[in-house]
Design goal:
79% of the residues lie in helices and 0% in strands. The longest helix is centred in the N-terminal third of the chain and has 26 residues.
Length: 189
Amino acid sequence: MASLVPVVGLSLGAAFVFAASTSLKHASAATAPDALSLQPRKIGAFLRATVSHRLWLMAIGCDVVALALQVSALHLGALSLVQPLLISGLLFALLFRRFTSHQAVSGRELCWALVLTTALAGFLLLASTRASSGADAGPDRLPAVLAGAVGFVLGAVCVEIGRRQRGRARAAAPLGITVGMIYAASAAL
């Protein structure tokens, strides 16, 4: 149990700093030029504004710190423990939004936060009771290759769905799913 404390601490720390990064990027994006049309001249202006924006640069610094915490947690603990704990970053992002935008957290958001917390706790309890096989037959690469191929196709589909949506809010969900899959794949690799 004592060996889990640093893994959990590093994982939750990474989730917290990733949430801070997301909050900073959101604040930066609110002032950035529109890049939804994907016209080359607008993309250039968007990139110039992004790489010179103070909040965006701070967010990138937070990403570096969070990634270092995540790598440290993965070095000490199992992927099946570290990655699920990173989902708590959604709860931290909810708190950051409360303090940065001075908006009250709605009852619906609190309900979903409770559902997320309960699901995470249940998943971790179930994962911890799983018996290990004991014998290590070496890596089986076929499932990883298949999962990578399926993930690539699903990511491409989500990006295309996001591009076809009207309005930023409707495009955010499929693009967020794609980013989540990329983060999960990078952590696994």
